[in-house]
């Protein structure tokens, strides 16, 4: 097991990465202010992993309630969130009852937001069960639900007490979901670590084959980078925005097609190709760079071509993005491979060329 | 105009108290990160005060949207909150658009919570229009909505950028609402300032007659006390709980009768009498002390006798209170007039006697 420490101005918490951690109550217990917990999970994950966790907690004398939500991004809504509140209140759960998110990014984001709001803030713990959640969503305290007019529009910055990433849980993850997680892994290489990008180019097949050492290294490297960035800029007033590489385009794809049609990671993958294409238009990347991006994303089993939303739709959905400032769209682009920057200087022309796919080489 | 400063560990904000402040855009403008605002108010207040505020902002070149909500505690729900989100998103409002709460505690609590959640945190400003909001709810950053199983159960600690309390707005406040506000004013005297309590006993008629100097003094003294307490304990891990004097009982009354039947301040008034009676049972107050409490509350035009909820209902509703810890009810009681303490040592017997009204002298 490796343990990283995410340091914020007035808090810090551990991120444990390893194998067979699910029932390691020794990692959980120090973070429960009272011996009372509520596990939030979904109907796919519950039959796989709920019983061992619940039993381990109960064996330690921790009063444990369970909330099983329906599975899917389309349920990342207030109505589903309310199922958590209903269960907590019906069970007389107190402000110090710890919410434990056992699931992927959808469960983690909703459980974190529920914890942020329940009695104005209950403790919470992340046990991410997808690659995407282990490398990205479980770390850093962004929580949210969707609104029909925009993804993750309603939420909070609210940090977990501990993150426990058990690699073994990835064994049951469908291939398509594993690939979606690899999109965020590739994102880290592209935005800030050319060496890691090169390592990914050499190890992408091992990762898809779930080679334990390769997976553990990738999760560790991503969490290190995320912890460092979030430690510098918890509320995304600066550098944290770089983590949104591919996401302005990606969120528009998700909203444009209707949440759930494409996986988040798939939308981000196609979004990163568009970000690379835009960077090429600005003269920052050359054709070979863009080809490297496309090839790695393709080898990860991910789409490299965005769906045709139509320019009006693209602009409409990107206009709702949280990175809009003073009416200007802000894009995360690539100065070079391994170095992202924020730019609000993308002209309408460039955008139109990129979105109509005229310069995408794949 | 008097200006107080609420100092928190890593922020501080001004509380302006005076007359004719509604159109003083000089007090607002320094707190808007971009020239874009959304005024949130209700259908009662809009015809009275919306136009002057909106015009003043527009005259300063501030793009201003308006959201008019239905009026009433029964609308302090997610559905109403969603009307704010719908309007913000339909209007392409950004993360830096400032939400301005123009209203009483219901509007203030909902607007604050909407700001806390919108794009994970938009700036917000409080312009309280009721006495209760001016002395209590607009200051200190508690925001919330109700859940059918408990009042203010879903919310956030989220501070405004500035609070602007314009006494003139109180001129149109119905008498019953003014009295409800006086309940919270009396609360401050009882919990922490025997001298202020004595001042209230001498000035309660002037306050009910809306004597400008008396009102301004009372608002100032309450805000001073609130600012000091919140400055010491923003998240209510200690001393801030004292501000809930009368509220454990009061919230049970509100929930037990259905939100809206009694005003919040009325429920708190009857709740303070019960807290005083409990304190007498514990030997801390004597009969004359309790009589003083009852008499002042009565003179303020407030109920001194709680409705008969039945013991099971009382306990059920108090069990959902945020002050429950490890299954124990925690009460704010009076060691003496002007000094509140927290106690989780109220026996079932004492509670039963107090709730059945056997020892209430009025
Ligand atoms: N908070 C953040 O910082 C952040 C960052 C990135 C993404 N996100 C959010 O994360 C969400 C996507 O997360 P995700 O990709 O984990 O999707 P997800 O949570 O929907 O999980 C994907 C699917 O895999 C299933 N599953 C999860 N773990 C499994 C396991 N171990 N075995 C078998 N099946 C399993 C789930 O039930 C689901 O059907 C999006 O809503 C996105 O907005 C948040
Ligand atoms: N956040 C906190 O710290 C805190 C503290 C105390 C109370 N509260 C909350 O505050 C709420 C009660 O607030 P309230 O007592 O202000 O009630 P309110 O907001 O419902 O206002 C009372 C009534 O007066 C009307 N009104 C408001 N201003 C007016 C004016 N100037 N002229 C004429 N009519 C006017 C309103 O439309 C409403 O009908 C409760 O929901 C309570 O939980 C919050
Ligand atoms: Zn993402
Ligand atoms: Zn109150």
From TrEMBL, chains A, B:
<keyword id="KW-0028">Amino-acid biosynthesis</keyword>
<feature type="binding site">
    <location>
        <begin position="105"/>
        <end position="109"/>
    </location>
    <ligand>
        <name>NAD(+)</name>
    </ligand>
</feature>
<feature type="domain" description="3-dehydroquinate synthase N-terminal">
    <location>
        <begin position="67"/>
        <end position="179"/>
    </location>
</feature>
<dbReference type="InterPro" id="IPR050071">
    <property type="entry name" value="Dehydroquinate_synthase"/>
</dbReference>
<feature type="binding site">
    <location>
        <position position="184"/>
    </location>
    <ligand>
        <name>Zn(2+)</name>
    </ligand>
</feature>
<feature type="binding site">
    <location>
        <position position="151"/>
    </location>
    <ligand>
        <name>NAD(+)</name>
    </ligand>
</feature>
<keyword id="KW-0547">Nucleotide-binding</keyword>
<keyword id="KW-0170">Cobalt</keyword>
<feature type="binding site">
    <location>
        <position position="142"/>
    </location>
    <ligand>
        <name>NAD(+)</name>
    </ligand>
</feature>
<comment type="similarity">
    <text>Belongs to the sugar phosphate cyclases superfamily. Dehydroquinate synthase family.</text>
</comment>
<dbReference type="GO" id="GO:0046872">
    <property type="term" value="F:metal ion binding"/>
</dbReference>
<keyword id="KW-0862">Zinc</keyword>
<feature type="binding site">
    <location>
        <begin position="129"/>
        <end position="130"/>
    </location>
    <ligand>
        <name>NAD(+)</name>
    </ligand>
</feature>
<comment type="pathway">
    <text>Metabolic intermediate biosynthesis; chorismate biosynthesis; chorismate from D-erythrose 4-phosphate and phosphoenolpyruvate: step 2/7.</text>
</comment>
<dbReference type="Pfam" id="PF01761">
    <property type="entry name" value="DHQ_synthase"/>
</dbReference>
<feature type="binding site">
    <location>
        <position position="247"/>
    </location>
    <ligand>
        <name>Zn(2+)</name>
    </ligand>
</feature>
<feature type="binding site">
    <location>
        <position position="264"/>
    </location>
    <ligand>
        <name>Zn(2+)</name>
    </ligand>
</feature>
<keyword id="KW-0479">Metal-binding</keyword>
<dbReference type="GO" id="GO:0005737">
    <property type="term" value="C:cytoplasm"/>
</dbReference>
<dbReference type="InterPro" id="IPR030960">
    <property type="entry name" value="DHQS/DOIS_N"/>
</dbReference>
<dbReference type="InterPro" id="IPR016037">
    <property type="entry name" value="DHQ_synth_AroB"/>
</dbReference>
<dbReference type="Pfam" id="PF24621">
    <property type="entry name" value="DHQS_C"/>
</dbReference>
<keyword id="KW-0520">NAD</keyword>
<protein>
    <recommendedName>
        <fullName>3-dehydroquinate synthase</fullName>
        <ecNumber>4.2.3.4</ecNumber>
    </recommendedName>
</protein>
<keyword id="KW-0456">Lyase</keyword>
<feature type="binding site">
    <location>
        <begin position="71"/>
        <end position="76"/>
    </location>
    <ligand>
        <name>NAD(+)</name>
    </ligand>
</feature>
<dbReference type="GO" id="GO:0009423">
    <property type="term" value="P:chorismate biosynthetic process"/>
</dbReference>
<feature type="domain" description="3-dehydroquinate synthase C-terminal">
    <location>
        <begin position="181"/>
        <end position="324"/>
    </location>
</feature>
<dbReference type="GO" id="GO:0003856">
    <property type="term" value="F:3-dehydroquinate synthase activity"/>
</dbReference>
<dbReference type="GO" id="GO:0009073">
    <property type="term" value="P:aromatic amino acid family biosynthetic process"/>
</dbReference>
<dbReference type="GO" id="GO:0000166">
    <property type="term" value="F:nucleotide binding"/>
</dbReference>
<dbReference type="InterPro" id="IPR056179">
    <property type="entry name" value="DHQS_C"/>
</dbReference>
<keyword id="KW-0963">Cytoplasm</keyword>
<keyword id="KW-0057">Aromatic amino acid biosynthesis</keyword>
<dbReference type="GO" id="GO:0008652">
    <property type="term" value="P:amino acid biosynthetic process"/>
</dbReference>
<dbReference type="InterPro" id="IPR030963">
    <property type="entry name" value="DHQ_synth_fam"/>
</dbReference>
<comment type="function">
    <text>Catalyzes the conversion of 3-deoxy-D-arabino-heptulosonate 7-phosphate (DAHP) to dehydroquinate (DHQ).</text>
</comment>
